């Protein structure tokens, strides 16, 4: 059984993962609205991944005898000045998620809840990848600058991205 504080924090994080999916869909909508279908695909795949993360937490809560509770999802930002801004916002969002998982890990460690510590380690490893991915995309976009031909090629590469849930 999960400690009440930890259960509440896991529920909060589950809801935050679904918010992140919502925010990435808003970024996809911005990209689609500006005829950047490849970038839109990137964010749609990112949203699928965040929903997977939310479901993973949902399952864990239920497996540990808790009750997954859903709360309202705030409306995300919908206007951006550029594709680069969407990636900067994505990085900031992932950094916030990392901070939240650190806090969850602190709670689990305080409670000596070793099963939850093990569960959260998967997310901590995932966050290293997520932040590095966004940092790389920001570097590429800064390097590309106003070169529309290179941006076109880069967008085509991101159009091929797909997310498959783990078994």
Keywords:
167 residues, mainly alpha, 5 helices, elongated
Protein model, in words:
With 167 residues, the chain is mainly alpha-helical. It contains 5 helices and no strands. It has helices spanning 4-33, 37-63, 83-110, 114-144, 148-159. Helix 2 (37-63) runs parallel beside helix 5 (148-159). The protein is elongated and about 55 Å long. The mean pLDDT is 96.
- SSE order, one letter for each helix or strand: HHHHH
Radius of gyration: 17 Å
Distance between termini?
25 Å
| Number of helical segments with 4 or more residues | 5
Mean pLDDT: 96
State the shape: elongated
Question: Short description, anyone?
Answer:
With 167 residues, the protein is mainly α. Helices cover 77% and strands 0% of the residues.
Summarize the helices and strands and which ones pair or pack.
Layout: H1 4-33, H2 37-63, H3 83-110, H4 114-144, H5 148-159
